[in-house]
Design a protein that fits this description.
Blueprint: E1 21-31, E2 34-46, E3 53-61, H1 69-72, E4 95-105, E5 118-126, E6 130-139, E7 142-152, E8 160-170, E9 173-182, E10 188-197
Antiparallel strand pairs: 1-2, 1-10, 2-3, 3-4, 4-5, 5-6, 6-7, 7-8, 8-9, 9-10
Length: 200
């Protein structure tokens, strides 16, 4: 199926057009001191015609019963397989994280950004008390970002000092991975997920 630019999208963000829409899927999070957990993520990229994309993400943990036998009595197992656009009761786990922000294409190409890519700016805020600015590049269905600034309130949930993110469109799926430097640890793997476009 041919890709069509979203109606009313500002030309400034055409390089990010493939992100626009709602995405849903599963991933894993883990870090020193944080036991590895699986999660369901809902992501939305939309626009209002301005030269940016609006972004929201919510990650909810998948709750596994203490007794595996409870899964055998789960009525969802007897129901038809749900599509990615149909949340189930299993998706109603506790919120692990949520964030909102804006994606922009920088008007000036820094010398380190190759000619076949575009400079990207990502501004994020989360209710745990962090504000972050990421800088990077987009091209050929791939986005690489590194934190340029991370500010935290005095009561922020974690002492985050640096982060990187990688996004890629692979066979119609949105895949992403995040490395984090926090709690005094060096930059290392924190979370990743594979998302499908909702309603596709």
């Amino acid at each position: 199926m041919a890709f069509a630019l979203p109606d009313g999208l500002a030309p400034e963000v055409y390089p990010l057009a493939w992100l626009v829409g709602d995405w849903r899927g599963e991933g894993v999070v883990g870090y020193p001191g944080i036991e590895e957990k699986t999660f369901v993520q809902d992501v939305s990229f939309d626009h209002d015609g301005g030269p940016y994309l609006r972004y929201t993400s919510t990650i909810r943990l998948i709750v596994i019963p203490d007794d595996p036998a409870e899964l055998l009595d789960d009525p969802l197992l007897e129901a038809p397989v749900a599509t990615v656009s149909e949340p189930t009761d299993r998706d109603a786990g506790p919120v692990w994280s949520t964030e909102t922000g804006f994606w922009r294409i920088a008007p000036v190409r820094p010398p380190e950004v190759p000619e076949d890519q575009y400079p990207v700016e990502l501004l994020l805020a989360d209710p745990a008390g962090h504000l972050a600015l990421y800088l990077g590049a987009v091209g050929n269905g791939r986005i690489e970002l590194s934190s340029d600034l991370i500010a935290s309130t005095s009561t922020a949930a974690a002492d985050v000092t640096a982060a990187t993110r990688l996004y890629g469109l692979v066979k119609g799926e949105l895949m992403w991975a995040e490395d984090l430097a926090a709690f005094g640890h060096p930059l290392q793997t924190y979370a990743s997920a594979r998302l499908n476009r909702v309603g596709a």
